[in-house]
Amino acid sequence: MGHLLVIKPFILFLISMFIPILVCFSQASEYYSLYKGGDSIKKREVCLILDFSSVNITNDGQILIINYHNNTFRHNPSIHISKAIKNDFQEDGECVGISELYKIEGAELKRELDKVEMEKGFRPPPPIRHVVLNVIIILKFENENLLYEVEWI
Questions:
Q1: Cα 106 to Cα 103: distance, rounded to the nearest angstrom
Q2: pLDDT tens readout for residues 43-79
Q3: Using CA of residue 95, residue 97, residue 101, residue 103, what is the dihedral sign?
Q4: Distance CA 16, CA 12 (A)
Q5: Which of 9, 73, 98, 131 could lock 150 by a disulfide, CB 3.0 to 4.6 Å apart?
Q6: What pTM was estimated for this model as a whole?
Q7: At a CB cut-off of 8 Å and minimum separation 6, what does 80 contact?
Q8: Given the DSSP bridges, would you call strands 82-85 and 145-152 parallel, antiparallel or unpaired?
Q9: Contacts of 101 by beta carbon, 8 Å cutoff, 6+ apart
Q10: CB 151 within 8 A of CB 73
């Protein structure tokens, strides 16, 4: 009976430690931070319209990998949204090409780094990964289009 009193709190402690980690990894974040403890910054949503014939798509188990002009995008259906849309869809977000995607990312990053430098007095190094934008890829087919929320890797 004495051992159960010790084991129960330990098990509860382990569960309480792993639940936040699991929740963190099970959701696609709409925010990013430029440094540890920094403000959460909302990602800018950008749409990339691609012709299905111009991309190379591989299926890594459940995860879809989309390669386009030396850029890789990952779609995980347990985290990201995907849906079929009509050919006459209305573009709600900002739809750009791949070169514009880099320009937008650079401008957003510069703006946020300048803001941190003005407010906090230091300039954090830029992130190594593409974390600034929330990229939506629309793959164009003849009869319908497929919309994928992706992670730009």
A1: 5
A2: 999 999 998 889 999 998 889 999 999 999 999 988 8
A3: negative
A4: 6
A5: 73
A6: 0.72
A7: 28, 148, 149, 150, 151
A8: antiparallel
A9: 46, 48, 71, 133, 135, 152
A10: yes
